Amino acid sequence: MNASSVVIAGQRVARWRSALPWALLAALALSPLLISSPNLVRLLFTTFLWVTTSIAWNLLGGFAGQVSFGFAVFYGMGAYTTALLMNAGVNPYPAFLASAVTAALVSLVVGLPAFRLRGPYFAIATIGISEAVRVVMTNLGFTGGASGYRIVEHRPFRQLEHYYTALLLAAIAFAISALVAHAKFGLGLQAIRQDEDAAADVGVNPYTYKLAVHGLAAGLTGVAGGVFARYAAFIHPGGVFGFHTSVHILLMPVIGGIGTVWGPVLGGFVFGIVEEEIVASFPQVHLLIYGSLLILIILFEPGGILGGARKLFRRFRGKR
Amino acid sequence: MENVNPPILEVEKVTKYFGGLAAVKDVSFEVRQGQIFGFIGPNGAGKTTLFSMIAGALKPSSGRIRSLGRDITGLKPFKLIKSGIARTHQIVRPFREMRVLENVQVAVHFGKNPITSATAAKERAMQALRSAGIDQLANDPASILSVGHQKRLEIARALATDPDLLLCDEICGGLTHSETSDMLQLLRRIRDSGTTVMYVEHDVKAITSVCDRIMVLNYGRKLAEGTPEHIQSDPAVIEAYLGTRAPGKS
Amino acid sequence: MTLVDFTSLVVSALLLAGIYAVMSVGMTVIYGVMKIVNLAHAGFMMLGAYFALELFERFHIDPILAAFLTFPVMFLIGGAVHWVLVRKLPHSDEPTLPSLLLMFGLWLVLQNLGYLIWGNTDRSIFTPRTLSVVNLGPISISTVRLVVFVAALVCLGLLQAVLHYTWFGRSVRALIQNRRAALIVGVYEDRTAGIAFGLGIGFAGLAGGLLGSLYSFDPDFGRAFLIRAFVIIVLGGLESISGVAIGALVLALVETFSILFVPAGYQLAISFGLLALVLIVLPGGIASLLAKARRLA
Description:
The structure holds three protein chains of three kinds.
Chain A: H1 3-34, H2 38-63, H3 72-87, H4 92-114, H5 119-139, E1 149-150, H6 159-182, H7 184-194, H8 196-201, H9 206-232, E2 234-235, H10 237-240, H11 243-256, H12 263-281, H13 286-300, H14 304-319
Antiparallel strand pairs in A: 1-2
Helix pairs in contact in A: 1-6, 2-6, 2-9, 2-11, 2-12, 3-4, 3-9, 4-9, 6-7, 6-9, 7-9, 11-12, 11-14
Chain B: E1 9-18, E2 21-31, E3 36-40, H1 47-55, E4 62-67, E5 70-71, H2 77-82, E6 85-87, H3 100-110, H4 118-132, H5 147-159, E7 165-169, H6 177-192, E8 196-200, H7 204-210, E9 213-218, E10 221-226, H8 228-233, H9 235-242
Parallel strand pairs in B: 3-8, 3-9, 6-7, 7-8
Antiparallel strand pairs in B: 1-2, 1-4, 4-5, 9-10
Helix pairs in contact in B: 3-4, 3-5, 4-5
Chain C: H1 3-34, H2 41-59, H3 63-84, H4 97-118, H5 128-131, E1 133-136, E2 139-142, H6 143-165, H7 167-177, H8 179-184, H9 189-214, H10 223-236, H11 241-258, H12 267-281, H13 285-295
Antiparallel strand pairs in C: 1-2
């Protein structure tokens, strides 16, 4: 292999890589039309929402390195915002937008004190805030309290509409993530993650940057919550505000490949599909599985599935 | 020709207490534009503390710091960048998971004259790498660089923020003799291109050979200030720091 | 409010502070020596509670004694966990993300083990002592709370003694204050860290056992206390027992007196409100003040 053939091979790889998201999008957009299976549609719908929250979390946790255990707050706020607005007669799509805004505002309330803490302290603070919000929402009257809240939608239930809404949301999230990654915003986040003080020494304002990415991530997660609420037509604090929701949101990008663009997508798909299977067959061990997975990933392959795959690929290439 | 512009750095009676101990006491000095201004002092003299206060890492207990007439006392580092003051680190702090070019690119994006476009920022970053003499390392991971190159990366990164004043924290620490003289040449080039340099150093020979003006600290107070020749022959300085007869530049 | 009522509340707060303190020292020791934020602390507290429950129900051992008996068992478990898992983490002078996620994963595993072994119904340790009351003048105190408080003080006292009068304790304090210097003077980091980790887990179990006498629990037990431990650590500083005591006292006072204004369900929100307030008034909390001091280098 001479130099020019390596360059050409590299260009070919690059073209594959930029075509991949579009190919995937097309495949997913067409599949419900080609394969008629309501179960598959439902599975993919849920997976798209997971992918969205996974990508969103990764913006803050992967790019900026701020690990939050409290994303259920935004998911739940989004869910309840959409639910309340729809019951007041608002069209779902503006309601989703309102969910994004509410979630982003809440992220400010959380972030302004919490980002004064660094690293793990921030993480624990998010656990507490998330729990505090759940407690408050469980006790609140007009949202139905602990017994939950029902959405009444006076339109026929069209599964495909939900499907494409969720797919669009996931696509938007992916686009945002890909654009941010190599632009000024993304570099600033990476700098903060790698050395916050050195980043400040070259002009990055860590506090406002963290607040900004937090708001973006929260907004995306809030819309996901809203889309879920509309689909499910019934939500309750133990579910959408539950700690396990925060855990799942965090697990996906870590499993898939934290800090990358495709990692959260991979993690979202793996999680969505595996969760369906596990919850069906072995409901009592799913914490065990996720906990062990997390431990194994941290100790042996911090780059997650994507990291492991890259290593294998490189070794394979090296052998030629 | 007398420089009538406001000084690029004006430190006025700056003091820093840690508990009951004054690490820096009533230090005042000025740095004029277009100089290389150095300060030295024995261990514990308060050099690092003073540097940290100017670089925004510490707040003075009292006193004021000004740049071009504006009060910059206690400003955070990212604000100082916008005021045209950038620093290097004594123990290098590259962004280890980025390549050399990306390290500098960050600085270009967030410097005094920030550039938003990634392509344009990369261009400007290459320029900075060229000025620092490490453009050939642009695609290398920052973590594998030698100490000498990492120090140059610190400088390239700081320069990429378009500073009027560059604060160098013991930039020659850990360098070989020839690397040191190359580094000093680089500092002279930086000064000649219009950026003022303020330089804290342990290495007396380096400081005296490159600086236009030197300030000597001892026990947190200013002991002397003047040209290298003046400092080397000042008896108080000799007694406190240099010990015996000062080694001449030759 | 009468003086008697006020004093009652203060006494209540004091008793609570003792519990909170012993609950937090486990986390503090591990953090101080290894800069690891031990999220699995909650899981080990939960195990301690269940272990004490088992000893009480199967062997009719007094629950307080059972709590103390959990210490050696949990100490060994802690040592094992350190040997198998924690040791593999890279050493650091600052808390790292991988260590956080590792301990979190461990917590999930422990929770699940709890569910598998004991199911998800609430359990509690119920003895005649639970309902009885001690009268100090006009104030009546729940006996079990008083006993637990005394036990907590004993623990803290023992820990202080170990830290200040044993060779091991000195190594631990050396590592806490300056890891590199400690290594240079010959402290065996791995061995000391292993023992310190075991100690931290041991105290977690012990605290869990004591708490089990006061509150009902299920395998998710510990999350609320974990958060409180964190609030205490941020309030009082991370690296000294006296700091923990101060933080515990402040939190206990705030929580106890807040019952006058706010329904009991909102307790956790109060603790967090306190933390938020501290962070706004003292930006960065105490943890980042320490980080700022380190930044000088």
